[in-house]
Amino acid sequence: MKYLIVFSSLHGTTEKAAHHICEYFKNDVELVDLYNEAPLRELEIYDVIIIGVSIHLSSIQRQVKQFLKTNLDILLTKKVGLFLCCMNEGELAKEQFNKAFPSELREHSIANGLFGGELLFSQMNFLEQQIIQKVKGISSDITNLNENSIKAFATKFL
Ligand SMILES: Cc1cc2nc3c(=O)[nH]c(=O)nc-3n(C[C@H](O)[C@H](O)[C@H](O)COP(=O)(O)O)c2cc1C
Predict the structure, then answer these.
(1) d(CA 158, CA 138)
(2) Cβ(119) – ligand 1 distance below 6 Å
(3) How far apart are CA 46 and CA 32, in angstroms?
(4) Residue 6: its pLDDT value, please?
(5) I need a labelling partner for 85 at 20 to 30 A (CA). Which of 52, 74, 91, 99 fits?
(6) Domain 3-117+146-155 annotated CATH 3.40.50.360
């Protein structure tokens, strides 16, 4: 089985979650950073494709939107996993997940994961720090990444 994890991560949390998923796989896993690397072309060679993204200001990164749009047909022929990192919880997090990924893919996927998120002030620019301080009323790092959800997600592919 050939595994691919594609992700987009602005401050490193989704990337961290992608690496944690890898730790559960004995097989070789290829990791591709959609935010910083050129778009992938050869998806045919993979059996399992996992896609991870984060929410910033209610939206996912455009590189992932483009990847999903361009590759939807081939993704529907693969074993797929979808995961989201965000700070909202409960229904709000589910709504963001449903908005992030097309319904056909959500219904086709083997695992859909909500992993929580982190607010890392050292990684934010000045404007982001101002927004988070105003909206959340905090000014220090918060880590709320759910390891149990990551494990439950990864084990569905073993
Ligand atoms: C400027 C900013 C805006 C954010 N907006 C949202 C949001 O609209 N909804 C949400 O659930 N989380 C929001 N978050 C939290 C991020 O989803 C969280 O920090 C996540 O872990 C980021 O993952 P990344 O580092 O992989 O991009 C926001 C974070 C920042 C810094």
Answers:
(1) 39
(2) yes
(3) 13
(4) 97
(5) 74
(6) yes
Which protein residue has the closest C-alpha to ligand 1 atom 1? 128
Distance of CA 124 to the CA centre of its chain: 18
Q: Give yes or no for residue 57 CB within 6 A of ligand 1.
A: yes
Q: In the 3-class helix/strand/coil scheme, how is 38-105 assigned residue by residue?
A: CCCCCCCCCCEEEEEEECECCECCHHHHHHHHHHHHHHCCCEEEEEEECCCCHHHHHHHHHHHCCHHH
pLDDT tens digits, one per residue of 18-63: 999 999 998 789 999 999 988 777 899 999 999 999 999 999 999 9
CA of 55 to the centre of ligand 1 (A): 5
**Pocket probe mutation, ligand 1, options 86, 144, 145, max atoms within 8 Å of Cβ:** 86
* In the block, residue with structure tokens 């990791």: 31
pTM of this prediction?
0.97
CB of 48 closer than 6 A to ligand 1? no
154 lines ligand 1 (CB under 6 A): no
Give the amino acid at 51. I
User: Chain-centre distance of CA 25, in angstroms?
Assistant: 17
What value does the mean pLDDT take over residues 136-143? 94
